[in-house]
């Protein structure tokens, strides 16, 4: 059974480990690269990783038997909220971990910003992720104008 919890800046090492693993194992799933993250890690260290916690919204991790296996961030600024850095480790895929992360993000958003749309970008060819997002109520709204390889999906809450 997996659990999802919000972490804080004091847990930056957990986020760092998950983020570097995600960039290493699934480099095509993210706009950023492992090389860039490692360079920033070398230059800025802890300050770089704590920076992930400065934008408004929760930083979430999923754990199976106490081991971190997934991550996601919900960022709330002007306009729709945004789901970033969504990733589930290969050994935890197909076990509902991704859906639990998304549900936790949607629940947090509904509690703190009722009626707010949640938006994400996903690589168009990443069919497993697209299916997961669709199962969680996201719909395709069009291509990502900033990256031709991606599409934009949104979850609009019932009003």
UniProtKB/TrEMBL annotation:
Entry keywords, A to Z: Acyltransferase, Transferase
Domain N-acetyltransferase: 2-158
Signal peptide: none
GO MF term set: acyltransferase activity, transferring groups other than amino-acyl groups
Organism name: Brachybacterium paraconglomeratum
Protein name: GNAT family N-acetyltransferase
Keyword Transferase: yes
PANTHER family (alphabetical): ACETYLTRANSFERASE (PTHR43420), ACETYLTRANSFERASE YPEA (PTHR43420:SF44)
């Amino acid at each position: 059974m997996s659990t999802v919890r919000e972490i804080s800046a004091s847990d930056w090492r957990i986020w760092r480990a998950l983020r570097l693993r995600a960039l290493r194992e699934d480099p095509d799933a993210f706009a950023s690269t492992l090389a860039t993250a490692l360079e920033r890690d070398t230059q800025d260290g802890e300050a770089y990783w704590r920076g992930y916690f400065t934008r408004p919204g929760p930083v979430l991790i999923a754990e199976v038997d106490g081991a971190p296996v997934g991550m996601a961030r919900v960022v709330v600024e002007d306009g729709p909220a945004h789901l970033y850095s969504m990733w589930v480790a290969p050994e935890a895929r197909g076990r509902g971990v991704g859906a639990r992360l998304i549900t936790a993000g949607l629940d947090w958003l509904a509690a703190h910003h009722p009626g707010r749309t949640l938006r994400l970008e996903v690589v168009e060819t990443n069919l497993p992720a697209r299916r997961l997002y669709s199962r969680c109520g996201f719909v395709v709204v069009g291509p990502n104008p900033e990256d031709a390889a991606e599409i934009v999906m949104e979850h609009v809450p019932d009003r």
